[in-house]
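Subject: Protein record for review, amino acid sequence with backbone structure tokens
How to read it: Take the token row as a discrete description of the fold.
Enclosed: The protein record, placed directly beneath this head.
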Amino acid sequence: MPELPEVETINRALRPHLLERKITKIDTHIVSLRYPLAPLHAQELLNESIISVRRRARYLIIELANGKAFIIHLGMSGSLRVVSPETERLKHEHVVWHLDNGMTMRFDCPRRFGFVKVCSLPEAGAEPGELRELGPEPLSSGFNAAYLYRMTRRRTGSIKSFIMNNAMVVGVGNIYVTEALFESGISPLRRAMSLTRKQCGKLTAEIKKVLARSIEIGGTTIANYKNVDGSEGQFIRHLKIYGKNRCPVCASQIQQKRLAGRNSYYCPQCQPMPNDTLK
């Protein structure tokens, strides 16, 4: 699933193609993705300037001058590309936006777990009401040691599951929390409430570092994520522990355990497990 770095990479790539452009037509080639696509045929979505292209968590928001906006989620394997109208449509490019400069933006969603929703914003730049339950952005100043320490008190679940909860902090998916926990020397099996203030500071700092580095080099391609130009993310080359067999620091055998339905990788030597660790 595209995570925050992948969606941010796509967001930055789309902006020069979409800002100040107008949508002249929207084609849909199936009835629905996760939600029905009929609302995309509303006349009010056409011939309005695109005034903002931004990301919130794993969602893309494309805002129009009249206060309408598209919320796009890429699902498990979705992608967007901007190409000329003469380019042959791919089998799973289910939504096509035609722009006033003659180009098209296309949403490819083979597994149909993604969606495009139309919403109304109360004012320019506002957050859609559909996203109001989300936690803070991990790269923002609001996600810091004090916040993490305060929010983890009385949380008896694993710290990894806590970080992957979008109500606590958004967009830090399995790969990135695995890498950040390793860099912090914290076991993914640790109970969230057991972290000290110092460990909370280390973990928030490492989360920011690993996300920023991934964004810098275009995200991570494990299966089929691609950027707008079709390129793959290069962060896979920099993974230290996710999907590895041996620890790059001590050469110990990396362990795996299922947490919240996802594979968790950790080094038992570099990420020691105290007595209160989950079994």
